[in-house]
Amino acid sequence: MTENIYINRLNAWAPGVGSAGEWDEWAAGKRDIALTGKSPELSFADPMFRRRLSQLCKMTIQVTHDLKPVLEDTKIFFFSFRGEISRQFQINKMLIEENTLSPALFSLSVFNAAAAQATMALGIKGGYCAIYPQDNSFVTGLTTACASLLGSSAKEAVFIYADEEVPAEYACFFKEEAPCAISFGLLLSKKPDEKSVVLNVPEKEQKPASFLKNLLNGGELHVSS
Fold this sequence. Notes:
- This protein is of the alpha/beta class and 225 residues long.
- The protein has 8 helices and 6 strands; from the N terminus they run E-H-H-H-E-H-H-H-E-H-E-E-E-H.
- Strands 3-2-4-5-1-6 form a 6-stranded mixed sheet, sandwiched between helices.
- The longest helix is centred in the middle third of the chain and has 14 residues, at 85-98.
């Protein structure tokens, strides 16, 4: 990319890590993300709407909301490695034990569910793109969002990464400890503001948590409140 993309705002949410100071502590290795299915409360959303949402959906909605995109036609680029893994587990269990499937459960289990629910909850009309990680690559997803912004007339875009807690039954499929729940969002723009930093897309592959730590440890960018 020959043009700069700027990060005008950063936000993040994970169980046990909330404030900007707590995220700085996490980045410095002084605080851990809790291994729990806890979700943000979404006090700004309708109770009937939020009661059916998964941890992944709630995290995605929370960080998108807290980024405060300037324009209602801002497009969301949603990236996840595992998507609605808890709902998929529920579906598989229901099929095995009851030989039946809940249409409501299935409709909220698809990969783009979190992005779709965020646009509805926040009234964002710019649409969304759900990016599946080609070759298990976070950098490819981030590059896709940046290239799409540069190739359009849009002034800004929202990039959201989110993965929820892995069901205990699936922990055996991970060589290391099963990943914890974490989400973060970047408000990307073609024009900087007074608190912007240039987005440097990593040349080598990085895990999302490592990318976030590098942003916070750079000292110029912090989770917005």
